[in-house]
């Protein structure tokens, strides 16, 4: 079909398409503007709230870190081999392949608030008020007291070991007044920690001699006590009239709780020293006694094993309770030590807690005295016979 030449685009009669100017349209409105403004406001509010909460959280964290609470946390401390701490000179010594380890507990004084909360939920820690640990002493005073107790503990530990080996290392030369009975003659004349050296000129070298002398006196008798006060070398003569014994009116009664005053003889021909460093307290006493015995006798007192030990020891060889045993048990367990000797005199609930903390990983052996500790080592394969043989030989030589 042919096309009309008059209608061909670009032809002489072609027409332009119709156009309209912008002024002919109505003005357009941004219908989303209110929503954008609300969104911007919400974002600003969220940013402000997040910033405020962040500032509050930061202040709380900082405040908790700076705020110290009046508590002390007992946490597991170190476990140390005793042999490197011993210095023996003037006699033969026998190094050991096994290890006798003493344990410590670490004190974290006045933890911050967040540490306090964390430690309160830590099964291996115990958090207690400061007064429980320090009493009315400052932390520094308490530290010095513990260092002094360590000095005494080491001296006793060495002396007890030497006694076990047949040396005359522990001597008594008086009776110490531990406690006074209210309303008795002693309360009027004596003070706690006084030393009674004689009654009527008769030496009271120990509690047995004091009791023997008093048994020959009766109620109403006047006696004269030779007394030495702590820190004073002077001897005072104090007259005392004896009362009636509450349990037997025919017997005389002084009214004191006595204990032997011990002196340690270091004139044995050789020396034993223990370097405990900055560790304080008396709880390593039993460990040190066993370490000295092991060092001075042939064979392995430990049976070649790694053994941890805690407990005080007195001149009679009795093992006393110590603090922080649960935390010490945790330290022993975590180090893979399989045997832990502890005082049998611990409170029953604390001893139960020690067994629970040890679980199946650590063999707990409670002992009441040095003899029981040696029996335990014997059962574990230690050469305890060497101690007995040394004592017999040494006793015969000294006799």
Explain what you see.
The chain has about 400 residues and is an alpha+beta fold. The protein has 2 domains: about 70-140 and about 145-170 and about 265-399, Ribosomal Protein S5, domain 2 (2-Layer Sandwich), CATH 3.30.230.10; about 170-265, Pdz3 Domain, CATH 2.30.42.10. The chain is about 35% helix and about 25% strand. The protein contains 11 helices and 18 strands. A 6-stranded mixed β-sheet has the order 4-1-3-14-17-18, with helices on both faces. Strands 5, 6, 7, 8, 9 and 12 form a 6-stranded antiparallel β-sheet that branches. A two-stranded antiparallel ribbon has the order 2-13. A hairpin with a 2-residue loop joins strand 10 (about 245) and strand 11 (about 250-255). Helix 4 packs parallel to helix 7 (about 285-295). The protein is extended and about 120 Å long. The model is unreliable at about 1-25 (pLDDT under 50).
Strand content: 25-35%
Number of strands: 18
CATH topology term of the largest domain: Ribosomal Protein S5, domain 2
CATH class category name of the largest domain? Alpha Beta
The parts where pLDDT drops under 50 for at least 5 residues are 1-23
Which geometry do the CA atoms define?
extended
Secondary-structure element order, N to C: HEEEHEHHEHEEHEEEEEEHEEEHEHEHH
User: Order of strands in the sheet with the most strands?
Assistant: 4-1-3-14-17-18
Task: Tell me, rounded to a whole number, the average pLDDT.
Answer: 85
From the alpha-carbon coordinates, what is the Rg to the nearest angstrom?
Answer: 41 Å
| The CATH architecture of the largest domain | 2-Layer Sandwich
- Please report the number of helical segments: 11
How many domains make up the coordinates?
2
Largest sheet: 6 strands, mixed
Class computed from helices, strands and strand pairing: alpha+beta
- How widely separated are the two ends? 153 Å
Instruction: Assign a percent range to the helix content.
Output: 25-40%
């Amino acid at each position: 079909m042919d096309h009309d030449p008059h209608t061909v685009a670009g032809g002489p009669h072609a027409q332009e398409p119709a156009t309209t100017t912008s002024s002919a349209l109505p003005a357009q409105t941004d219908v989303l503007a209110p929503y954008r403004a609300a969104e911007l406001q919400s974002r600003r509010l969220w940013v402000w709230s997040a910033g405020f909460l962040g500032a509050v959280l930061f202040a709380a964290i900082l405040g908790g870190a700076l705020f110290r609470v009046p508590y002390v946390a007992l946490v597991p401390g170190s476990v140390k081999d005793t042999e490197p701490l011993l210095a023996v000179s003037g006699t033969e010594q026998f190094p050991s392949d096994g290890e006798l380890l003493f344990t410590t507990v670490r004190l974290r004084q006045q933890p911050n608030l967040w540490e306090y909360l964390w430690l309160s939920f830590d099964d291996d820690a115990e958090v207690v008020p400061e007064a429980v640990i320090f009493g009315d002493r400052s932390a520094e005073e308490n530290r010095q007291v513990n260092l002094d107790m360590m000095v005494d503990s080491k001296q006793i530990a060495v002396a007890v070991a030497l006694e076990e080996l047949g040396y005359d290392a522990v001597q008594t030369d008086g009776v110490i007044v531990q406690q006074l009975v209210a309303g008795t003659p002693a309360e009027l004349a004596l003070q706690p920690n006084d030393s009674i050296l004689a009654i009527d000129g008769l030496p009271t070298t120990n509690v047995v001699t004091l009791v023997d002398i008093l048994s020959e006196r009766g109620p109403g008798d006047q006696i004269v006590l030779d007394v030495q006060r702590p820190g004073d070398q002077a001897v005072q003569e104090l007259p005392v009239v004896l009362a009636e014994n509450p349990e037997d009116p025919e017997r005389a009664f002084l009214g004191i709780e006595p204990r032997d005053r011990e002196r340690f003889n270091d004139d044995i021909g050789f020396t034993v020293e223990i370097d405990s460093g900055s560790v304080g307290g008396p709880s390593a006493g039993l460990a040190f006694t066993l370490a000295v015995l092991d060092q001075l006798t042939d064979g392995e007192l430990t049976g070649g094993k790694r053994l941890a030990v805690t407990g005080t020891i007195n001149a009679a060889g009795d093992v006393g309770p110590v603090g922080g045993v649960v935390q010490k048990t945790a330290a022993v367990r975590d180090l893979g030590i399989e045997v832990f000797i502890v005082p049998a005199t611990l409170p029953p609930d604390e001893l139960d807690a020690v067994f629970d903390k040890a679980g199946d990983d650590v063999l707990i052996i409670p002992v009441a005295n040095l003899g029981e500790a040696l029996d335990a080592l014997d059962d574990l394969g230690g050469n305890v016979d060497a101690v007995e043989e040394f004592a017999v030989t040494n006793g015969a030589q000294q006799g």
